[in-house]
Structure formats: C-alpha cells, structure tokens
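Re: [help] complex structure
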Amino acid sequence: MEQIAAASGTSSLTWLLIALPLLGAGVLLLGGRRTDRWGHLLGVATVLGSFGVALALWLNMLSKPGEERAVRQFLFTWLDLGRFQVDVAFQLDQLSMAFVLLITGVGALIHIYSIGYMHGDAGRRRFFGYLNLFVASMLLLVLADSYALLYIGWEGVGLASYLLIGYYQTRDTAGPAAKKAFVVNRVGDIGMAVAIMVMFAAFGSVTFQGVFEAAPEASSGILNAIGFALLLAACGKSAQFPLQSWLLDAMEGPTPVSALIHAATMVTAGIYLIARSNPIFNLAPEAQMAVIVVGLITLIIGGIIASAKDDIKKALAGSTMSQIGYMTLAVGLGPTGYVYGIALLLAHGFFKAGLFLGAGSVMHGMNDQVNMRRFGGLRAVMMITSATFGLAYLAIIGIPPFAGFFTKDLVIESALARNPIIGAVAIVGAGITAFYMSRIFFMTFIGGKRWTDDVHPHESPATMTVPMVVLAFGSVFGGYLLMSNDRLERWLEPVTGYVKPKPDLEPIVITLITLVFVLIGVAIAVVMYLRRPVPEAAPSKVSVLTYAARRDLFGDAFNEAVFMRPGQWLTRSLVWFDNRVIDGAVNGLAASLGGLSGRSRRIQTGYVRSYALAMLVGAVLLILSLLLVRL
Amino acid sequence: MNPINYIYLSAVLFSIGAFGVLFRRNAIVVFMCIELMLNASNLAFVSFARINGTLDGQVVAFFVMVVAAAEVVIGLAIIMSIFSVRRSASIDDANLLRS
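Output below.
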C-alpha cells in the first residue's frame, strides 16, 4: 500500500467536518439557558455547514483519479509513548466520504425535522446539543485514520446515544433503556479494545495503514482473533445477534433520535468497521464466516420480532435490525459483498430515516400514541406523511425501481454466489421484510379508523414534512443513482476491493424469485390486515412464535438467565468471600491481638507494691539464674 | 570481728527493707524502707571492700549515697504533692495508671 497523500487545498478542510458539530455541541451544552432561543438554529446550521463542507470535499474528490482520491490530514500527535504513537489525523477516502455524506446529509434533514418535532419541548436546546455531539462523534468514527482514534468516536457515539435515549428524563422507562443500550454497547466495546490491543501486540501499530500493511504476514490465528473481536464490537454497535436487545428499548428516545440512530449513525458503525477492516477479514475466513452467520441470524430474528410488534417504533426497530443483518451478511461475503453492503446501508439511510420521520409525524398528529392497533385510515388526514412513508415502504421491501430493489437484490445475488443456503435465507428474509412492512403500512395508513376518542390527527408542519419529502426522493431515486452504471462499485473499489459475484442462476431469475417472495409477503399482509378487520386489542390466543416474538424472542429473558443471574450470583459470592474470608482474616487477626492485649493489660494493676514485688521476683530469678549458670 | 558478720547484717537489713516496701502502705514508710535497702547494700559494698582489701566497694558506696540523696529530694517532693492533691499518703490510693 503506498503512502496516502497529505491533505492540501480543498481537502485540508476535512477537520471542519467534525469541528462544526462539535462546536455546536459545545456551545449548546455549555451555553446554558441563554442559548435557548436560537439553540436549535445553531444546531441545524452546524450540521448543514458540515454537509456543505462534505459536498465540497466530494466534488474535489470527484475531480481526481481513483487512486489519488484518498487523503490524510495530520493535525497533531496525541500520544507518543515509545513504540505506541497515536496521531490525531483524519483519513478521507471513498469509503469515509460515502459515510460522511450520509451522516451529514441525512443528519441535517433529521435536525431540520427536529425543529418541528421538538417544538414546545423545554429541553430542545439540550436535545440539539446531544444531536450535534452524536453527529460529531460519528464523523470522528468514520474519519479516523487509526483504530485508536476510531475508538474515541466509537465511545462518543455510545455516550451520545445514551444521552439521547434517556432524553425524556421524567419517564421511568427511559433511564433503564438508556442504561441498557450503554451496557450492551460496552460489551461490544470490549471486543474493540481487545482488537486494538492484539493489533498493537502483533503489528506494533494501530493505524489502518500500519495494520493493513502488516496483516498479510500475520498468522491466521491472530487475524481470526482480531476478526472475531471486531465482529463482537460491530455486534454491539450495530445491534446484531447476540447483542441486539438494546435496539428495541432504544425507542424510548424521541423519534428523531431513532431516525438518527437507525439511519445515519450508530448502527451503521459496525458495518463501517467491518468494511474498513476488509484487509483483515479477507485473510480471516473463519471470522468472515462468523460475520455471515451473525448477519443471517439477525436478519431473520429482526424480521420475526418486527412482525409481531404493535408499537410502530418497535416494529421499525425490528426492521432495522433485520436490514442491518443484510448489511452484515453482505460485508461478511468479502470483496463480492462490501460494495453492496455499503450500497444497502446508504439506501437504507434514506428509506429508514423516511420511515422513522414518518412514524414521528404520525405520533405528532396522534398525541404521541404508538399503538398501531389504534391507528388506521390515516392516509386521509396525513397526505404527505402517508405518501412519503409509502414510498419508503416500497423502497425497503425492494419493489423495482425503488432504492431497496437495486441494493438488496445485489446483496442476495452475492449471497447466492457464495452459497445457496445463505442466499435462500436472504430471500426468505426479503419475504418477511415485505410482510412486516406491509403490516405496518396497512395498520397505520389504510383500513378503518380505530382511533381513540381524544385524538384529532393532522398533518405536521413544513419543518417536518420537507425533510420527509427529501428522504422520499432519496428512497425513490437513491438506488438507481448509486448503482446504475456500476457507479458505487467503481467509487469504492480502491478502498474495499470489488469482485463481481457470479451466482449459478441468471441475475434476472434471482430478481424474479425474490420478487415472488416479496409479493407473497405482501399478499399475506393484505389477507391478514386489509381483508380482515384489525382488532383494537392485541389478540391473546396467538401462536407460540408470535408469543415469543412479542417478547423479543426471549432475548431479554435469555440475557437475564445466562448473563444477569450468574453475574449477580458471582457478585454475591464475591461479596460473601470478601466479607467472610478476606475481611474475616484481617478482622480476626485484629480481634485476637485485641483480646491478647486485653488479657495482658490486667498485669498493669496500678499498685506500686505489686510492681515492686515483680521487680524483686525478677531480680531474685536473675541472680538465681546467674548462680546456676556459674555452677 | 569477722567481717562476714557485716554481710549477714546487711542481708537482714535488706530483707527488712524489702519486706517493708512490699507490705506497708504509707508512702513515707515505704520510702524509708527503700533508704534502708540502699544503706544495706552500702554496708555490703563497704564490707566486701574490707574483705577484699580494695577501694572499689567504698567508691561505689559513695555513688549510692549521692544517688540516694537525690532520690530523697525528688521522692519526697512527689509524695508531698500527691498528698496535697489527694489528702492521702497511701501508695495504694495512687493507682490512676491501672489498666
């Protein structure tokens, strides 16, 4: 790998990408109440500014040939400890650029939307401060040139998500949800830390360039160890099995946060990490296989959970889990999949943000209700929301020519090229996606009105609908713009490599099979939720699968039984050991010394005569012993 | 007279002194008994000097006298001040330092 060119000219603006939202977060969080009046405007302006810088950098990048597009901007040396050196330096290449555009673009739209959504909320300025912090951390994550610096962004994202999920401080459920997200993420972070340590021990470097240059000479054991550790980290951030449980509870946060977490930041970090570490994963087939398996499991369980939830946000959360599963699967496939994983991620950014903002708009009109069984027929009163939501819905289930069709189809194609079973699971997953998304759409916007008496649904203000319209455009045309003419393949090829997948079937056949499954999914939803009336209370006589899916497939119960209970038991036994054995030994020694002292204290009677007697006896004994010795 | 008899006298005097120290309560009497023991030892030193024909024992006897004089000064002062505080010269009453 040749040296990456130093940033110059336009590309030396890279640092501004992070500095702007960070400045916004600093001003808003430290400025206190005096920034209340214009805080939200500053929050939007910084992210928009970042987006502008990103566009300029992108245009600048487009004007160069593929190999010269990557630049590295060195700011300063942060740590210099012997062999361990960490620079604060940013690496802007095609992969980072794609993420930066997604984060700042979709992020800016969500910021604008939040002006309307959080209108009237007392903590709106604080909310925008957190949002800016979130965006800044995520940008740091994708721009870092070393794993160590990436780790800072990684933790920053975790912190910001914790603050935002627990934003409604007065709700009892928000605090535990935020804590859960933080703790589960922390389990994944262990993987990240271990990976960094192994890299430093094995390669003596933690920069991307240093690690990737040294990787081909490393033993497969080390590469697999790093691969598995990175996979654990990715599972935590991207809510993949077995660390998926936090994502559903994360819906406690305000809806724009959900949109930001699910579309632009946070859950995409794991995909970025694996795609970025492609030189390691390409050399570690076992770890790569594990990535595929994790992706497959998650895409199925996410779909099953999403199919049973009545809470619109939780159903969408399950769908995110499932879609991220697709991306994980794609990046696990190696050079045939990296590009498609990123493509799905970018397209998903559009339609999932559109779906969540649509859900937020529905909640805005329905007094913050989330139960889809009390929605229905909202199409008539929320024209724009239902139209944008509908377009995003068509995009996510992969109806041509919307965004999801172009991207998900290619993931399925490369999965089939790898192994028919993997491809089959992915196709079934597409059918499940079609079912649960149709269910959400039908229950919310179509059918009879099942509203509670006190709601008067209305369309949301323009600050909310305009971002939704923009995202709907992305959902419609994004896929074509990204994938036509192999545009994204050629764009990402210098970073992630690209090999065209060669499935046994013709691509058009695969597309038709997938479409058949999608249509079956939609048809089942039509029969269940359009032809029959939707009961207002959730049916209690349900199949075992539905029962399990309503409880997140017992993910929480599993965690509780396998991790929490033994953990508590271990803690208790450690406390017992500490109290009884360690403290016991120390306290016992002290007590026995004290007892001994108490006994020997009695010798001190205070009577001079007894001391005199003791001296006399002592003197006599001394003399006697002297005499005896002389004899 | 055989000088050994002075040794016997010295032993008797020392025993009387020790007995008094152990069994009397009055501080003044105890004090006098201590003096008696000191002088018994002085007598023993001088007798041994005489028996051995050297001056060592006599020199030591002078030292003991000096020490005894100093002790009397300080000891009587202590007894006086204890008496003025406690209105008692019994050494068993001065037992504040017991455990």
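Chain B is about 80% helix and 0% strand.
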